[in-house]
From TrEMBL:
Keywords: DNA-binding, Phosphoprotein
Positions of modified residues (4-aspartylphosphate): 59
UniProt cross-references to SMART domains, sorted A to Z: HTH_LUXR, REC
Protein name, as recorded: Response regulator
Keyword Cell inner membrane part of the UniProt annotation: no
Species this protein is from: Massilia aerilata
SUPFAM superfamilies hit by this protein: C-terminal effector domain of the bipartite response regulators, CheY-like
Length: 216
């Protein structure tokens, strides 16, 4: 008789317990074993080292200065063969490209069908890359025509700061809104202006409206 296949051992990391519990239940229903649920990037790194899961599913955004991508970088430093699936409520092209560039195997959005998350975990476990169909289609289109939008040129945090800049918030107001230091916001906002080639407030707002980031 063939040996019974062991369930895929999965670690989850998300700072919203209800969301994480839902994902854990859906993966469990697919015959996977959730071996840990971390609530912060630093906890995810420590839990990965302790549990040695087959696949780590990491949210990208946490309510701290660290992100799921920071956690992934630390995990990959100690285990270059780590299988990582990223979750995000955002699906901008630059973010997806960056996750793959750093070595992740899959990217799914939080509003995905539970079957998509399970398939992403299975493909990552097998060492394969996984694009949900709608993301694969869009990235294929971008490869052909190119993309110079803020969404493609900025990472998630920079894009959020650009959106707030476009709404007219000052660095101090953005820092307070995002619970980050004013110095951090100042550095990121300057980098954003240089990357996009816009420095005057009117041009920043106009660019954001053009690409649908804020309402006119």
């Amino acid at each position: 008789m063939p040996k019974e296949q062991k369930p895929i051992r999965v670690m989850l990391a998300d700072d919203h317990p209800i969301v994480m519990t839902g994902f854990a239940m859906s993966l469990g229903a697919q015959g996977m074993e959730v071996v840990g649920q971390a609530k912060s990037p630093s906890e995810a790194v420590a839990m990965y080292a302790e549990q040695k899961p087959d696949v780590a599913v990491l949210d990208i955004r946490f309510g701290t200065e660290l992100t799921g991508m920071d956690a992934a970088q630390n995990i990959l430093k100690t285990d270059p063969q780590a299988k990582i699936v990223f979750l995000s409520q955002f699906d901008q092209d630059s973010l997806i490209k960056e996750t793959y560039r750093m070595g992740a195997h899959a990217f799914v959005t939080k509003d995905c069908d539970p079957a998509d998350l399970a398939e992403a975990v299975r493909q990552a476990h097998a060492g394969k890359l996984y694009f949900p169909p709608q993301i694969a289609e869009r990235l294929a289109s971008l490869a052909v025509r190119g993309d110079v939008s803020p969404q493609s040129m900025l990472d998630e945090r920079s894009l959020e700061i650009f959106r707030l800049m476009a709404e007219g918030l000052t660095n101090n107001e953005i820092a307070e809104r995002l619970n980050l230091s004013t110095k951090t916001i100042s550095n990121i906002s300057q980098s954003v202006k240089e990357k996009l080639g816009v420095h005057r407030q009117a041009y920043i707002t106009k660019l954001a409206v053009k690409h649908g980031l804020i309402q006119p």
